[in-house]
UniProtKB/TrEMBL annotation:
Transmembrane segments annotated in the record for this chain: none
Organism: Rhodococcus chondri
Coiled coil: none
CDD domains: PRTases_typeI (cd06223)
Gene3D superfamilies: 3.40.50.2020
Similarity remark: Belongs to the ComF/GntX family.
Name of the protein in question: ComF family protein
Length: 214
């Protein structure tokens, strides 16, 4: 009864295509299930980069809804897609077998507060529920002074982030391989600074995976 009443007030629609009556439809699930492919961002992070496809269609709509429209439920299909991508990379020999440390790309504290939390971390935690070998540790944080990156060039993004991503103290085993994850890969500036900082702190970062590339 409560669910029916909520549907009248806030009708359920697919986060990928707005189909009514379902939170995530089968067609959008299939679109999100594309195999990870190598990407070459303008700023080279110094490790292999993979994405599940271009930032359009169901991928774009799901990311926007999760980040800007409070659709926390979309962490589940996004996380499942991430877990499947890691499994595929393992089969191809691109990703180490065994336990992995999954580090979400950092987000600005103000943006996270406005969104009711960090959607990338929620996505990573959902992936870990599907693959128990994935251990999520959100160790990266942004320092004060980082601007919103929308509209910035690759060079401006690099300057904006330089020295402003830090690793917070945490008891994370440094010997395990580390995979950086994000929702959107744009210029690669965030990935590059994140990888640099992680490696400087002793983390064995071997690659990064994003849901989409812009």
């Amino acid at each position: 009864m409560l669910s029916a009443l909520l549907d009248l007030v806030l009708p359920v629609v697919c986060g990928g295509c707005a189909m009514p009556g379902v939170a995530w439809c089968r067609s959008c699930a299939g679109e999100l299930n594309d195999a990870p492919a190598p990407a070459r961002p303008r700023v080279d992070p110094g490790v292999p980069v993979w994405t599940l496809g271009p930032y359009r269609g169901a991928r774009r709509n799901a990311v926007v809804a999760a980040k800007e429209r409070g659709r926390r439920d979309l962490a589940e299909p996004l996380g499942l897609a991430l877990a499947v991508a890691v499994a595929r990379l393992r089969r191809w020999g691109e990703c180490p077998a065994g336990p992995l440390i999954v580090v979400p790309a950092p987000t600005r504290a103000r943006a996270a507060r406005a969104r009711g939390g960090d959607p990338v971390t929620r996505m990573a935690c959902a992936a870990a529920r599907h693959d128990r070998s994935l251990h999520v540790h959100p160790v990266l944080v942004t320092a004060r002074g980082v601007r919103d990156s929308v509209g910035l060039s690759a060079a401006e993004r690099r300057r904006n982030l330089a020295g402003r991503i830090v690793v917070r103290p945490c008891p994370v085993p440094r010997a395990l391989p580390v995979l950086l994850v994000d929702d959107i890969l744009t210029t690669g500036a965030t990935a590059a600074e994140s990888v640099r900082v992680l490696r400087s702190a002793g983390f064995a970062t071997f690659g990064t995976v994003a849901i989409a590339h812009a």
